[in-house]
Amino acid sequence: MAELVHVALDAMGGDNAPGEIIKGAMDAVLAEPRVKVSLVGQEAVIKKELEKYTAYDKDRVSIVNATEIIEMAEPPVMAIRRKKDSSIVKALNLVKSGEADAFVSAGSTGAVLVGGQVIVGRIKGVERPPLAPMIPTEKGVSLLIDCGANVDARPSHLVQFAKMGSVYMENVMGIPNPKVAIVNIGAEEEKGNALVKETFPILKNTPEINFIGSIEARDIPKGLADVIVCEAFVGNVILKLYEGVGATLISKVKAGMMTSLRSKIGALLVKPALKKTLKSFDVEEYGGAPLLGLKGLVVKTHGSSKAIEIRNTVLQCVTFKEQNINEKIKQTITVPTETVEE
User: Fold this and answer.
1) What are the φ and ψ backbone dihedral angles of 273, each rounded to 5 degrees?
2) Could you tell me where the DSSP H helices lie in the chain?
3) What is the residue-averaged pLDDT of the chain?
4) Which of 18, 26, 131, 151 has the smallest C-beta neighbourhood within 10 Å, fewest atoms?
């Protein structure tokens, strides 16, 4: 029997906790026999929610009591220091101790980022761990790296993002020699702000990656690159605009199909194909954003995550663990001289 992949799930984090979080966990356990989930949070609340479910393997679902909850608006550093019995801190400690292989949360992004670095810790040589969500494209998916962890990044950070993103896409998504591009305001090498101009030639001369140059925002949905490299401010704007435009278009298409009897008949005819197409552009289908470069797997999902996103994120952890992504990142990241001397 294959070794179980143990996921510590923050049952109290997110807008729809604990109901949708626990439902997602149950769906994941039913879908994948290699998954074991620890629901971390207020025991009485979790037990009450679990009473809704009967058809699941109770040996692969456990509860870890955590009396405190880190709220979205709390200062992350202070919350991690003071709330030692919070669901986020206790779950991260399970990863740090090796009791769990991964941590998943829809809770406070700041607390997850701070806790991931302070509690789990960075792989030696990794300067800054980036958040890297999957975004749907015309050709499948691309990895957007970074989307929220490092607003003031340096060229060396972006180069590491490119390397880690390439490892992830090749091993988790099965894309050989993934194409890497840097977000820019034009295709020419001389364009861009100071950060992009300085980073471009370094990426161009990095043998570990398949760098194809700059990519403009309008070309990202076309799937021209597998790894989209940028600092977190740009990445977060791209991600939020992507999600907003996608939701608006879906709403407009649905409304347009209900305007007349003819359009309603047409809608019935195209519904199966349209449903499949729209589903492929739903961000919930691709799981959460891993915080790459840590000693253990930490994954952040949307605060508004429903069960489907939690399920897919938990299942994503299995591939990450089985492909030994952290070890491959270690091998890819060269330890800088100044890090060794410190």
Assistant:
1) -70, -40
2) 19-31, 43-50, 76-82, 87-97, 109-115, 155-171, 194-204, 232-256, 261-280, 307-322, 325-332, 337-341
3) 88
4) 151
- Locate 218 and state its tokens: 């309008």
For residue 251, the number of C-alpha atoms closer than 13 Å in the C-beta half-sphere is: 6
* Sheet hosting strand 179-183, strand order edge to edge: 134-137, 140-145, 227-229, 179-183, 210-215
Q: Six-digit token pair at 248?
A: 């608006």
DSSP letters for 270-293: HHHHHHHHHHHT-GGGG--EEBTT
Q: Could you report the per-residue pLDDT of 309-331, keeping only the tens digit for each?
A: 999 999 999 988 888 898 899 88
When pLDDT is averaged across residues 249-255 and rounded to a whole number, the result is 73
Least confident of 20-34, 244-258, 262-276: 262-276
Give the bridge partners for 289, in sequence order: 300
Give which of 217, 159, 227 is closest to 183, Cα–Cα.
217
